[in-house]
Every structure is written in structure tokens, then in C-alpha cells.
């Protein structure tokens, strides 16, 4: 993984992702990534490491689109798409997109949600990389995979900033290639 100012990216991430207990509800340990986003060098290295999940062994881009899930997934996925020379597609919460959508509802570790994508956001046969901040229960990734498939696309891989090892997210990802920059 990429170094940041002479230290491993993982070390930089660990120092710039802060724990916030009982947010957004009691019992949840929220991972605040805003200090990471404010650090140019670490943010740049993070984007490059996530983008590597959309490249083959020779460094060639192997995806047509990068999908980011609302809201923090947007922050990571948009620059990953730029790094790959691919299109960016926002996956939004229900009611946020202005045209015809596909929708999937799913469970979160602290509630329920519905995600939507424009019906024409991914063309049939396009390969996509899913990018999000946290892999927890896997519900967001699985719902987004279903949205891609409803459009006729194929998920080529999943890239997340962090995986919460105490939760079953990896099982929901299944056989898809998964890149997690850190596991907590």
C-alpha cells in the first residue's frame, strides 16, 4: 500500500480516523473520517489505493463506472472515478434523484434504508466498482449490487476505506473482490 510522508498508509489512516462513541445512536461507535479528508497527502494516497481496486495487474482500468453510496461514499468514489478515468454514479437515498429510478430497501446496523439509482445510470454490460467508506453489515453493498444488476451492469469489485470485522459485511459481499484499506 502507498506510503504517506514515509509511513505506511495504514498508520496514517489510523491516526486520522477518529472514534465518536454513541453517534448517531447509543451503542454505535462512529468512525469520523473528516480529519482524513482534511489531510491532502493521506486523502490522495487513500484515493489511489481505492482506485487500485479498479485496475488490473498492469495498472489498466478495468471498470467503466465507479458508484458511490450516499453520503460519505460520494466523497471517496468521485475522486476514485477521476483517478481511473471512469464515470461516477451517485447511489442516493430514496426520493433524491429527479428521474426514473430502480430502488432497493435493506437493513443497516442501526435501522433501515432505501437506495436508488437512475435506471440509465449503468448501461447493460458495463463493469462497475462500488466504493464506500465503511463495510459493516454489507446491506449497502448488497443493495447497490442489486441496483447495478437491475440496470444490466456487473459489479467488478468493492473498495472500502474500512471494514468492521465484528459485523458480517464480508459475507454479504460474497465472491466479489473486496479491497478494504483497514480492518477495525
Automatic annotation (TrEMBL):
Entry protein name: Adenine phosphoribosyltransferase
HAMAP family for the chain: Aden_phosphoribosyltr
Major site of localization recorded for this protein: cytoplasm
Source species of the chain: Nocardioides terrae
InterPro entries, alphabetized: Ade_phspho_trans, PRTase-like, PRTase_dom, UPRTase/APRTase
Location(s) in or outside the cell: Cytoplasm
Self-association and partners: Homodimer.
Job of this protein: Catalyzes a salvage reaction resulting in the formation of AMP, that is energically less costly than de novo synthesis.
Family: Belongs to the purine/pyrimidine phosphoribosyltransferase family.
GO MF, one example: adenine binding
Cited SUPFAM superfamilies: PRTase-like (SSF53271)
Any single GO BP term: AMP salvage
Keywords: Cytoplasm, Glycosyltransferase, Purine salvage, Transferase
Top-rank lineage group of the source organism: Bacteria
Domain Phosphoribosyltransferase: 63-163
Pathway, per record: Purine metabolism; AMP biosynthesis via salvage pathway; AMP from adenine: step 1/1
Reaction equations catalysed: AMP + diphosphate = 5-phospho-alpha-D-ribose 1-diphosphate + adenine
Family matches, as CDD domains: PRTases_typeI (cd06223)
GO CC field: cytoplasm
EC code: 2.4.2.7
Amino acid at each position: 500500500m502507498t506510503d504517506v510522508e514515509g509511513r505506511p498508509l495504514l498508520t496514517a489512516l489510523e491516526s486520522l480516523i477518529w472514534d465518536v462513541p454513541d453517534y448517531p445512536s447509543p451503542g454505535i461507535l462512529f468512525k469520523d473520517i473528516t480529519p482524513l479528508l482534511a489531510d491532502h497527502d493521506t486523502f490522495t494516497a487513500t484515493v489511489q489505493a481505492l482506485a487500485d481496486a479498479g485496475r488490473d495487474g498492469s495498472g489498466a482500468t478495468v471498470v467503466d463506472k465507479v458508484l458511490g453510496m450516499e453520503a460519505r461514499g460520494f466523497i471517496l468514489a468521485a475522486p476514485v472515478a477521476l483517478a481511473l478515468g471512469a464515470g461516477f454514479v451517485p447511489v442516493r437515498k430514496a426520493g433524491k434523484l429527479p428521474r426514473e429510478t430502480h430502488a432497493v430497501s435493506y437493513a443497516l446496523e442501526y435501522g433501515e434504508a432505501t437506495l436508488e439509482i437512475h435506471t440509465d445510470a449503468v448501461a447493460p454490460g458495463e463493469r462497475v466498482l462500488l466504493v464506500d467508506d465503511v463495510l459493516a453489515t454489507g446491506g449497502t453493498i448488497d443493495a447497490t449490487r442489486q441496483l447495478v444488476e437491475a440496470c444490466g451492469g456487473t459489479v467488478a469489485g468493492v473498495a472500502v476505506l474500512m471494514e468492521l470485522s465484528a459485523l458480517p459485511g464480508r459475507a454479504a459481499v460474497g465472491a466479489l473482490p473486496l479491497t478494504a484499506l483497514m480492518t477495525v
